[in-house]
Amino acid sequence: MGNHLFGKDIAGVINAKLGPLLLPLTLIKVTSGARNPAEPSAGTTLTEANHPGRGILDSYRDSQYDDTIIKRGDRKALILGDSLPAGVIPVPSDKLVIEGREYNVIGVERDPDAATYTCQVRGA
Predict the structure, then answer these.
(1) Which helix (H) or strand (E) holds 11?
(2) Regarding the domain delimited by 5-123, which CATH topology (the fold level of the hierarchy) does it fall under?
(3) Is residue 1 pLDDT above 70, yes or no?
(4) Structure confidence at residue 34 (pLDDT)
(5) Contact (Cβ atoms closer than 8 angstroms) between residue 60 and residue 66
(6) Which end of the chain is more exposed for a tag (fewer CB within 10 A), N or C?
């Protein structure tokens, strides 16, 4: 699923070697549905789709907390890109369940091969 940098499936190799060692997680994709024409002020309905994956949960260093972008209690979740179903990519507004706790995805960075996604998550 990665970008095959240098003609190699780096994301696949990392997932095959590390995936079984990491924690199971669920990435919950949240999408807006249709607006009910009978109740236009009610907003849109939200739908959620669960996608299994593997990853780890880590903490930020004390010096990284600025209480503006990174708030106390925020965590870093590293997700193996190839552990997610094809075409599923974490984005802000998704949810993540790992270690029995649900988090909101605040920000996402990925490596050049899409082998890993590092998500800033905040307790839901």
Answers:
(1) helix 10-18
(2) Thrombin, subunit H (2.40.10)
(3) no
(4) 77
(5) no
(6) C
Interatomic CA distance for residues 108 and 120, integer angstroms: 6
Measuring CA to CA, which residue among 32, 22, 28 is closest to residue 102?
A: 28
Task: Return the amino acid letter for 4.
Answer: H
Dihedrals phi, psi of 19, to nearest 5 degrees: -50, -50
Q: State the pTM of this model.
A: 0.85
DSSP reduced 3-state for 17: helix
Instruction: Give CB contacts under 8 A, 24+ apart, made by 89-93.
Output: 89/114, 89/117, 90/27, 90/117, 90/119, 93/30
- The whole-angstrom separation of Cα 50 and Cα 31 is 12
Digit-coded pLDDT (tens) for 54-84? 999 999 998 898 888 999 999 999 999 999 9
Q: Tokens 């999408």 belong to which residue?
A: 31
80 and 43 Cβ atoms separated by less than 8 Å: no
What are the structural domain ranges in the chain? 5-123
The rounded percent of the chain whose pLDDT value lies above 90 is: 69
